[in-house]
Amino acid sequence: MAVMFRGNSLKDISWNEFQALRPAEKAPMLTSGGHPYHILFSQQFDREFLNRIITLATMTRRIAKTRGGLLYLQGLLAEKRAMLYFVQPSTRTFLSFFSACEMVGLKPGEVRGTSTSSELKGESPEDTVRTFSSYFDLIVMRHPEAGFAERIAWLLSTTERPIPVVNAGSGKDQHPTQALLDIYTLQRSFEEVGGIEGKTVVFVGDLARGRTVRSLSRLLALYPGVRLVFAAPPSLQIGDDILAELREAGVPVQLTDDFHATIPEADAIYMTRLQDEWDIAGESQKIDLRRFSFGVEHLPLLKPNAALLHPLPRRGEIAVEVDHDPRAVYWRQVRNGMWIRAALMLMIFHRDAEIDRYYEDLTS
Fold it and tell me: Which residues 6+ apart lie within 8 Å of 331 measured at CB?
């Protein structure tokens, strides 16, 4: 049976009314019984939620290390099914969600591209997704259209069988679960040096169209003392909307086009690739991004306890030779995505308390 809303509900508001709200006003409508329900944008997460999901992901990871623990996890959501609706190319995010589903027993189905659905016959995307809701208990979607996941969440919430929607990447703006796994990776990297608070994080590359950067920077604003540096060519610099949100939250920010000068001060560096799939006429191919790359010659400049991240795929922004340095955590970042998404699905279906109990028995 699908989880029903309690309190404020999307079924009680029109799409135009919902669309006009600020994220903070939308957030209460995306929960169910104190748990997350729809996962649409990074602004719906607060610090308490981040602390909880980080702890839950770590417990889930440790439980899965034994055969008995893994079998226990796989039984938690064995009665549920998830549709992975990925009509935008993806490798890591798709496999991460697929593996997370298997980890907690969710049976995954998949549609990877409109050429394999009735959209090829002219069916609207909305009707396609509503069809999925007849067969599945959760929809994870990656879509090139900004705001599409929000529209589907609202639409399904007004039907006789509402089910949760998880945004796995929407347009150029939001990628909330990537932001969660990035926060988890940073927290694990800084466990022995005071956590994320007070750290300087440098974002590098195509920041204007990098939805991972946009989502993560919003979450970092929840950590006191964090300072954010955005290193990019002027035409690819972070958007004014993000800067306004950060300044309103009191986060110190710096804009620069001299990335290499920022390396010695960075506690974490978040590299990104050129997002040229959003180009209309190939404009960004004319931009020289070599000054925004990280090679072995830069390792001596990096702090001993720093972390080097990348959401991947990479296209030369980080030299392959850097992979062997312990501060390069981007492959750990990939694996962390499976754990954080497994934890998220357990929370959506109110099974996280069972993880608490099992872990307490395991460690007592």
Answer: 323
